[in-house]
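hey can u check if this looks right to u? its 209 residues, i copy pasted from the old doc so theres a chance i mangled smth
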Amino acid sequence: MIKRKIWVLLATSIVLTGCSDEAEKAQTATDELAVSKEAVIVSLNAIQQNESAMQKQFDEALVADEELANFKDGTAPLFANIATRKEEVAKVEENIEAMKGHIQDLTELDYEAIPSEEINNLTRVAQSFISSVEAFVPAYENQLQEEEKTFTSFGADDANFNTLYDGVNALNSISNDNLKVLEPIIDLSVEFETSIRQLLCQHLQAEQL
């Protein structure tokens, strides 16, 4: 049941020097966009870390109670794990909404005073990032519901080896499918960082003219 995924988390910061109001607005919106994006990655990492702990928690729950009553009443550590991941999904949704607001701020700027091509590219990448995460969230929420239902079924009076075997296999299949949905996020995270650097370089070149 262990699922591992390495997410790219890079510190992003850009300094759009200059005295114009538009440059200051771009500075603020870009910084806040980067912060919200990083917060999404932090939560995705936390989700994967908690998934990685599930196998040990599952084994410990089986040993702790041969009757599997801890699955029936929801006291097995796996249920706390599910609750923690639900909280991280909520944080992802919150920060995705924040990213949308920062993108809107960037689209409303006066592009005559700032590097418009680079900002357009940044917002394009950010939108793709958002779309990828938004495709994942409902699928993962369904996964969490299936986990809760499946683990509870392990404690049923008529549960047997096949209940556990089939349940675990079904959950692993769902998890594998969801990881495929989220795979593009790694490349998009790197592309986001590249767009930030390009924006900074373009602005510095403009300042030197």
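Residues 116-153 form the longest helix (38 residues).
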